[in-house]
Amino acid sequence: MKKSSLFSIAAVASAAALALTGCSGSTDTAKSTRACVILPDADSGTRWESGDRPALEKGLTDAGFEADIQNAQSDAAKYATIADSQLTKGCGVMVLVDYQGAGIEVAKKAKEQGVPVIAYDRPIAGADYYVSFDNNTVGALQGQMILDGLAAAGKDPKTASIIYSSGDPTDGNAKMFLDGALSVLDPAGAKAAFTMTGTWDGAKAGTLFEQAFTAVKGKVDAVLAPNDNNAASIIAILDKNKLTVPVSGQDASVAGLQNVLLGKQTATVYKPFQLEVAAAIDVISKLLKGETVTTDKKLDDGTPYIAVDPVSVGPDKVKDVVADGNAKAADICTADVAAACAKYGVN
């Protein structure tokens, strides 16, 4: 790993150590050394199959545990079927990435069988633990992107026309992202000129933004976008109308990093999945060994929350995402982005 990377082996160890400090959560003695994991989708642009699956498999195997990792393929019914099959075979712990609330019933079934549940990346009602990035901080970074972008454009947030958008309201993280953004925007006097319906669907976000654009009669000074996927569709509409304004995002996707380099997106929130996996493996290991898991944060419902710090990435830090191995310069530096890559040392 290059020295310029945004996270290091020490950071991974630090992320894992998050589960070792503070107030303790409930524990269950594991009945087996098998970790059952359900991922939500294998859609293009998502990290689950390319990132989390191999990292979880390696981490669990290296720790001496059996891993059963399956993907619900964007199907709530399949999610439930996978869970029933895994529980029938036996699980020492279940690690669930929620899909449209399907994780709630699965968590309930698992706990009825004495199997502890870790909600991974997305909160799930009834889970024993929640392992994710610090979602309020993600939102706060996004809110700061808007303020920084407006300041660079010489515009006052109190009078700026800002369109607010958010993620799918069925995803518990979406509210935390928005709350975090508002914790920065509200004190600055920023207000929404128009608030879009929340979605993670990029194509739908484009349609919703076009409606918002019409509603504000084309007067847009900034857009609070919840992730790079939404931002890309929003930016396409802005491009069509020959506008460049501050736009936020998250995930450090290839498209998002390209838009950041091109100056069409102010920044993106980078969440190295390796840090989240490290924290999850630590909790899984303790549960499967019957040890106590502790953490210094809780969700509003009291669920112990192991929170990993995210990073804001502007054009000058894109090279560090590449150095971390979480993006390839060859994918980012296409013909229209090559000059920007050269300018910011992305190679």
Give descriptors for this structure.
alpha/beta; single chain; three-stranded parallel beta sheet; Rossmann fold; about 45% helix; six-stranded parallel beta sheet; about 350 residues; about 15% strand
Structural notes for this entry:
- The protein has about 350 residues and is an alpha/beta fold.
- The chain has two domains: about 10-135 and about 270-310, Response regulator (Rossmann fold, 3-Layer(aba) Sandwich), CATH 3.40.50.2300; about 135-270 and about 310-345, Response regulator (Rossmann fold, 3-Layer(aba) Sandwich), CATH 3.40.50.2300.
- Helix content is about 45%, strand content about 15%.
- The protein contains 13 helices and 13 strands.
- The strands form four sheets. A six-stranded parallel β-sheet has the order 3-2-4-5-6-12, sandwiched between helices. The protein has a three-stranded parallel β-sheet with strand order 8-7-9, with helices on both faces. Strands 1-11 form a two-stranded antiparallel ribbon.
- β4, α4 (about 100-110) and β5 form a beta-alpha-beta unit.
- The longest helix has 18 residues, at about 135-150.
- The model is unreliable at about 10-30 (pLDDT under 50).
